[in-house]
Amino acid sequence: MMHHLWIYALILALLVLAALLACVIAALQHLPHGRTAPMLAPALKLAARGDLGLTALRLGHSLTALAALAGLMWQARGWSGFDFACLSFAAGIALALLGRIIPAAIGTAAAEASLMRLGLLGLIAAWLFTPLASLMQLLKRAALRGFGLTFDLADQRDALRDDIAGAIALGHSGGAMQKEARDRLLGALDLSDRAVEEIMRHRRQIEMINADDPPDAIITKMLASPHSRLPVYRDETENILGVVHTKDLLREFDRLLRGEAPEGVEALDILKVAKKPYFIPNTTSLDEQMREFLKRRTHFALVVDEYGALLGLITLEDILEEIVGDITDEFDVVARDSGLKRDANGDYVIDGAMTIRDLNRATDWGLPDAEANTVAGLVIHEAQMIPLEGQVFHFHGFRIEIAARRENRITQVKLRPVR
Asked: Where are the extended beta strands (E) located within 144-286?
């Protein structure tokens, strides 16, 4: 009898150990950044081990839980088939709840408190299982090479980003996260996967200053524009010679008004005021461009293709808006979703130049943006033609009607989800 009691006590101890390790694993993944309390020292050492330490803990948890289950099954080896099956089912449920789900929930909800109490246990367990975890990682790499596959650092980053995106989507679908918070987090994650040409302002929409215009016309245009920086061209809009800032123009205007030039304001040379233009390729990723903006201490870049032809412009604010949504002030004339409204029939009337990403954000739809950046581009891609006004198409679960067309551009569409 005492022999059986010792075995059951060992099984219970293994189950408790598995539960504690599950709590440590969850707490490590949810510990707020920057915590330095002395009681967290073991946990911080454990976190410093990185992926190897976490793998060792997971391995220890799995082996401990399996050992507890194996011990229980060994004790029940003489039971009848039905009784053994019932015990196996009940033991599996109990192990999942008590050895994984509940402890992990506690570790998630009280990460710091859990690690203060269990950090040393986790550090010891990681130290014990690290050799085996290292061996498992070597075997994993060997197996991947055997199949002609690789799993380098870039693959790990992609997998981690996918895991984070999945967790964010799950949190939103479960009601734990608001749509705005989800959009901000996913927007930040997507920066490395998206190019500047996807969010740039198209060259048709760029306000420019002609270097040969008279000074009063230049000043009037600068004051009428909602933008603080405008490109300066000569002869043709492709020939960008500089970018002028409103403050620089006002400083020069003030200097001329104070009589430092005999001709007064008429002596204004806009090219002397303008700064050298900053050109970037259209394939530059958003996160790379944001770093370049911060490094160069500038907010404005002109986007060109591989032949040097002007495609559009992008600002630091454009990139930030991919994360936080519209940033508007008293000088902004339109918002990103201003090209979206509903008519009396309930159809969405959409500006053809509106980006698919902005439309998806505003409506929580899932229209694909792999082949086109704008709504008009998506319609042309799917129709394989430039549709006529009044034509109707059905794709991706939507009814789309061409509401307006100007020359070869689709300027407005009506869109309705098909139920």
From this structure: 201-202, 209-210, 229-234, 236-245, 279-281
Q: What is the mean pLDDT of the chain?
A: 83
**263 Cβ contact list (under 8 Å, min separation 6):** none
Q: Of 183-192, 278-287, 300-309, where does mean pLDDT reach its minimum?
A: 183-192
Contacts for 264 with CB less than 8 Å, ≥ 6 apart: 256, 257
Residue reference for tokens 């700064």: 275
Tokens of 82: 């039905």
| Residue from 303, 249, 247, 296 nearest 271 by CA | 249
Instruction: Categorize the per-residue pLDDT at 345 as very low, low, confident or very high, splitting at 50, 70 and 90.
Output: confident
Which amino acid, 296?
R
Inter-residue contact 103 to 95 (CB < 8 Å): no
Extended strands (E) in 117-272 = 201-202, 209-210, 229-234, 236-245
Look at residue 23 and give its three-state secondary structure: helix
Residue 6, Cα to own-chain centre: how many angstroms? 53
Bridge partner list, 300: 315
Q: What is the pTM of this model?
A: 0.64
**Structural element, H or E, at residue 316:** helix 316-324
